[in-house]
Amino acid sequence: MKLLFDRVDEPGLNTIDVYRARGGYEPLRRALAMRPDEVVAQIDASGLRGRGGAGFQMGKKAAFIPKGDMDKFLVCNADESEPGTFKDRELMQKNPHQLIEGIAIAAHATGCNRAFIYIRGEYDYVADILDGSVAEARAAGLLNHVDLVVHRGAGAYICGEETALLDSLEGKRGNPRLKPPFPANQGLYQGPTLINNVETLSTVPHVIRMGGAEYAKLGTETSTGTKIVSVSGHVRRPGNYEIELGIPSREIVYGLAGGPAEGRRVKLWFPGGSSAPVLTEEHLDLPYDFDSMAKAGSMLGSGSIIVIDDTVPVIDVAKWVAKFYTHESCGKCTPCREGTRWTLAMVERMDRGEATPMDIEIMAGVQDQIIGHCLCVLGDSMAMPIASLVKHFREEIEAHIEAARARREGIVSPDSPREQPTEATV
Ligand SMILES: Cc1cc2nc3c(=O)[nH]c(=O)nc-3n(C[C@H](O)[C@H](O)[C@H](O)COP(=O)(O)O)c2cc1C
Questions:
Q1: Alpha helices of 285-357 — where are they, by DSSP H?
Q2: What is the pLDDT of residues 375-404, one digit of tens each?
Q3: Going by CATH, does the domain composed of 226-309 fall within 3.40.50.620?
Q4: Is 165's C-beta closer than 6 angstroms to any atom of ligand 1?
Q5: Which of 28, 34, 214, 313 has its CA 20 to 30 A from that of 121?
Q6: Hey, which of 46, 64, 162 would you mutate to test ligand 1's pocket, going by the most ligand atoms within 8 Å of its Cβ?
């Protein structure tokens, strides 16, 4: 079942003529003939949940936007900075009008007269495509009700967080704001603001075309529709795949992405980008949807699966996670600024043989103090996967610490190879 990626490689799909020849902008015409609250009702009936990370229902968020004639803003989050996530790039690059149509429909539904696509700076070539497509749509008279601007971000993970994004869009340093107030009430320039991810907004034309109730029949009861999953890491066919939510995770990792190389096996996987707590091979039979991932102690997040095979020591995964979030922490709040650095230093000590197994307990305790105590969830985004690595792989980490200490203290030769995980410790 393909909606967002339907014939996505058709030549010329990024032009308005080909897009229209396929029925594109027909849902917008239909939506503009409806009352705004009727459009919101359709989106609500679809059950569409945000595809950017938090999985909040779009219809509910749109209904929070106050009615009235004040300046209201719609912001499309195209920052796409979560490691392992590369779906929005393909959506924008290959089918920009699908997104523009979704924005135009959502703007009508909420009465937003100004809209921005905040796109990460590294996607410069995609921003050029969008600029051209917005100009085409405007010239065709499709954006008379909303002024749409493509804005290039300067490049920081935190600018994907919705309130930091708003500060960045206002020309300030991208730091998160304290919530509440939420953007729906006080967002860009203190005005009511609807913020949604590229994939969420690209889905809106399909919701209007099919009707909310019909769309809701796809997927599961609480995770409706289709989802683009970015699969990367140790798989034979990495890439973006559109799936119906609720199919077995194994079908994505092995069936679509080909699984790990011959003779290797999945040691762990991140089901929702690097911020998601890791799962293990035994979780591959779970349905891939918001609730199943949450029940297993993780999250669907941005829908990006990163597969790590049994050649990789868990401590390296922990180091990679801690390094990224330490680098990207904006420094505004203490638990994140100090907690990410401290964790990285601790993981490095473990790897150098300067830690004891007791430090695992201390490290897990520090993660507990980060989770839920930060200004935004960037700190949690490091602490959750680190805590999950300890939960699932404590024995391997312990063995790693002991072996590194033995090497350091000369009990075994310092030249002895850094141990690889064995069956017993995996
Ligand atoms: C540190 C951090 C980075 C984020 N990066 C992105 C991002 O790159 N793209 C995105 O759509 N959402 C990102 N989010 C989630 C947004 O804050 C927000 O929930 C999302 O844009 C809402 O859109 P949705 O409801 O359509 O998912 C990030 C959140 C955090 C805490």
A1: 290-295, 314-328, 334-352
A2: 999 999 999 999 999 999 999 999 999 999
A3: no
A4: no
A5: 28
A6: 162
